[in-house]
């Protein structure tokens, strides 16, 4: 989420590289890697052991379908986890029901593959739209695809569904059991992750640009995930006090993100470490009082007014989240179907393995899909070798077979968070061993079939991903930019109000942060697609830059309202410097009783340099601050139109003069260099907003004027800007506005006549 200091370009070139570096590199394990690993063992073992005791391991496929639901929702608070797990179990049963009924009605392999491909596409789109995962759609697709190729009669379907439902209910209980020991564990982990990610950004800030950009994106994403976790909790739950304490910690992370130079990474990490156990949530102290022990209940309530506003907000309809995923659904359906058909045509292997391999590939964009294909192939080939090594041990008896499956289930979940291919090293032998629950099968044949289906599924699936273009990716970026601009404009308008409600400011801050996270995710996803028009990278960078400046201004507004005596327990302090708004360490006792950020800066300078004349700072600092705040909101209509401020100034000069101008005249009208004007005019001419006419007497001279489109654009934007400026000045009566205009005019006249001499 960080912005480059380099001049942004207007388009992102198409990337057709297939990266290999880093694709197989193991990452750090998840903080809770052992939880899904233990959960899946606890969910799988009892049903399988019962079936083993009854001599009916041939039914284990149906209980495994329900047991694997325990893999889901480990990052959700328990109230939300209960709902998500219930929906996962119901979704699993729906897919299995369709598969079993289809299998009982026909044995035509082409029909079975087609149904499996359609189920895989539906599962992919629904899981991505609802953000159910990890493990997302892959487990559900594996279950339904395997069920399609399980021979049975229609009369057996209810019994098999009952087994899956019973195992699913047991998986639900396994998933909810940790709530008895640590009922607030998920939300504490999410908050700790946000604090740690923010601390990492605070340390990376000012260092390597690439590292800082990645750390900033990770920090904002972690904070957004923490808010999503906390906002999913019931507002009136019995643990509301704990929830509010965690919310205040996330607020501290937001403050540190806005002012990384002044954040205390060690303090943030100390809070994060304190959240690991079951002890009391650390007290941060309220930023308005500086009391690190008790805080002020009224101020704390004010601080979280925005949270209550968000709790009452209407969720985005599911349909709106499904529509943008249509290309991904088509990719999945086509790739899975073609992979299954190819496996059938070869006459080797099991078509549903090829189908599942193709379904596992599809990620947010083509570049990530390629990476997953490499990981899947390497992991499956390595897993086949692992199976060859353990097959003699597993064949010692059915008990050994079940034990090996449990060990591989644990290993798969323990390793998959480090890299997908490491997890598949265990998934592949587990899947091969499950096929032997119905009876012994020759290991060499199983390994051959698995390798063939893996290669077929990966090659055909990736080819389908290349063939089915996602041309909507660019449109999604445009929409994300527009959403971020609207969120930033609303936040800027609230900042301009002298007495904006704290709850409205906090809600606007969170909405803007969420919009920026979504913008970065959308832009990154689109950048990895092929065969699309150039992306509006310049608009993305500008929207991010303006958005982060507004977030920092909102944090300053929050901390400036704290008053004298604010403590340093917020993990980071933000104030303006005399040079125009960069954060500085406010020290102790610095407040803004008058609600003016510049006044705080002046008091600080007077404290450390009593003899310094800060009078000019009080004027120039306020002018700079007012200009920055006004510019933030006024630029929003320009960004929506795809214009920079400098480009709009050129259009405005042509509109207000009412006649043609030469490039030199435009440079003087807009106080710009000739080279800059030439570059901007070239872009505006290409967009059809300005037209050029050659001079009849001197071919070196060009005359410029607005086109009808350019005139309409200026006439549409200007009233919106004037309405905003009128609203900003509405708090001043006519005489005071006239006085201010006269004083500023006098100052401007002096500067225009003397500034060059002063600089010399």
UniProtKB/TrEMBL annotation:
This is HTH-type transcriptional regulator pecS. GO terms for molecular function: DNA binding; DNA-binding transcription factor activity. Residues 616-749 form the HTH marR-type domain. Gene3D superfamilies: Winged helix-like DNA-binding domain superfamily/Winged helix DNA-binding domain (1.10.10.10). It comes from the Bacteria. It holds the Pfam family FUSC_2. Residues 283-297 have a biased composition (Basic and acidic residues). It is a multi-pass membrane protein. InterPro entries: ArsR-like_HTH, HTH_MarR-typ, Memb_transporter_dom, WH-like_DNA-bd_sf, WH_DNA-bd_sf. It comes from Streptomyces leeuwenhoekii. It is found in: Membrane. GO terms for cellular component: membrane. CDD domains: HTH_ARSR. Its main location: membrane. Residues 278-297, 558-592 are annotated as: Disordered. The chain crosses the membrane at residues 84-103, 161-181, 383-409. Keywords: DNA-binding, Membrane, Transcription, Transcription regulation, Transmembrane, Transmembrane helix.
């Amino acid at each position: 989420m960080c912005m480059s200091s380099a001049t942004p370009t207007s388009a992102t070139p198409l990337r057709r590289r297939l990266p290999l570096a880093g694709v197989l590199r193991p990452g750090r394990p998840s903080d809770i890697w052992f939880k899904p690993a233990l959960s899946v063992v606890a969910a799988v073992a009892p049903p399988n052991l019962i079936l083993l005791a009854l001599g009916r391991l041939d039914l284990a496929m149906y209980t495994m379908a329900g047991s694997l639901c325990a893999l889901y929702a480990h990052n959700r608070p328990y109230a939300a986890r209960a709902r998500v797990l219930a929906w996962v179990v119901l979704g699993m049963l729906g897919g299995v029901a369709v598969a079993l009924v289809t299998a009982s009605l026909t044995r035509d392999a082409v029909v079975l593959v087609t149904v499996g491909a359609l189920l895989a596409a539906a599962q992919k789109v629904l899981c991505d739209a609802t953000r159910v995962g990890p493990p997302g759609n892959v487990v559900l697709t594996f279950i339904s695809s395997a069920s399609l190729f399980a021979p049975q009669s229609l009369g057996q379907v209810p019994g098999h569904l009952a087994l899956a439902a019973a195992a699913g209910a047991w998986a639900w209980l396994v998933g909810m059991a940790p709530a008895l020991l640590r009922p607030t564990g998920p939300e504490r982990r999410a908050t700790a992750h946000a604090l740690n990610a923010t601390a990492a950004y605070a340390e990376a800030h000012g260092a390597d640009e690439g590292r800082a950009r990645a750390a900033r994106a990770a920090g904002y994403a972690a904070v957004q995930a923490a808010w999503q976790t906390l906002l999913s909790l019931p507002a009136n739950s019995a643990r509301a006090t704990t929830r509010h304490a965690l919310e205040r910690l996330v607020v501290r992370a937001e403050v540190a993100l806005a002012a990384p130079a002044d954040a205390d990474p060690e303090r943030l990490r100390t809070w994060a470490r304190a959240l690991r156990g079951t002890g009391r949530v650390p007290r941060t102290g309220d930023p308005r009082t500086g009391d690190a022990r008790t805080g002020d209940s009224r101020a704390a309530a004010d601080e979280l007014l925005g949270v209550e506003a968000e709790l009452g907000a209407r969720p985005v309809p599911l349909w709106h989240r499904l529509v943008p995923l249509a290309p991904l659904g088509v990719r999945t359906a086509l790739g899975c179907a073609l992979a299954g058909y190819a496996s059938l045509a070869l006459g080797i292997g099991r078509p549903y393995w090829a189908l599942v391999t193709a379904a596992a590939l599809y990620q947010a964009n083509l570049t990530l899909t390629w990476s997953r294909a490499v990981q899947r192939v390497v992991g499956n080939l390595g897993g086949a070798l692992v199976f060859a090594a353990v097959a003699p041990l597993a064949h010692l008896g059915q008990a050994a077979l079940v034990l090996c499956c449990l060990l591989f289930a644990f290993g798969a979940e323990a390793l998959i968070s480090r890299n997908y291919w490491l997890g598949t090293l265990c998934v592949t032998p587990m899947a091969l061993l499950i096929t032997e629950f119905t009876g012994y099968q020759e290991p060499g044949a199983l390994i051959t079939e698995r390798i063939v289906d893996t290669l077929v599924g990966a090659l055909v699936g990736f080819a389908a991903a290349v063939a089915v273009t996602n041309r909507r990716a660019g449109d999604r970026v445009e929409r994300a930019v527009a959403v971020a601009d609207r969120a930033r404009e609303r936040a800027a308008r609230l900042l301009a109000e002298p007495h904006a409600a704290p709850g409205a400011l906090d809600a606007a801050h969170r909405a803007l942060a969420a919009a920026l996270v979504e913008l970065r995710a959308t832009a990154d996803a689109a950048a990895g697609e092929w065969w699309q028009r150039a992306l509006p990278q310049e608009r993305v960078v500008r929207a991010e830059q303006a958005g982060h400046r507004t977030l920092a201004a909102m944090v300053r507004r929050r901390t400036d309202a704290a008053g004298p005596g604010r403590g340093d327990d917020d993990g980071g302090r933000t104030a303006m410097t005399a040079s125009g708004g960069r954060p500085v360490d406010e020290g102790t006792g610095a407040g803004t009783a008058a609600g003016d950020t510049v006044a705080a800066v002046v008091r600080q300078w007077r404290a450390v340099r009593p003899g310094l004349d800060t009078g000019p700072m009080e004027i120039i600092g306020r002018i700079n601050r007012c200009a920055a705040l006004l510019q933030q909101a006024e630029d929003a209509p320009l960004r929506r139109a795809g214009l920079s401020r400098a480009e709009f100034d050129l259009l405005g000069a042509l509109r207000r003069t009412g006649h043609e101008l030469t490039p030199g005249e435009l440079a003087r009208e807009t106080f710009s260099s000739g080279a800059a004007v030439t570059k901007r005019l070239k872009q505006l001419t290409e967009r059809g907003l300005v037209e050029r006419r050659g001079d009849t007497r001197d071919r070196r001279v060009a005359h410029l004027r607005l086109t009808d489109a350019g005139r309409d654009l200026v006439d549409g934007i200007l009233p919106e800007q004037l309405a905003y400026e009128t609203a900003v000045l509405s708090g001043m009566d006519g005489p005071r506005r006239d006085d201010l205009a006269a004083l500023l005019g006098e100052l401007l006249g002096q500067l225009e006549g003397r500034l060059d001499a002063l600089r010399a």
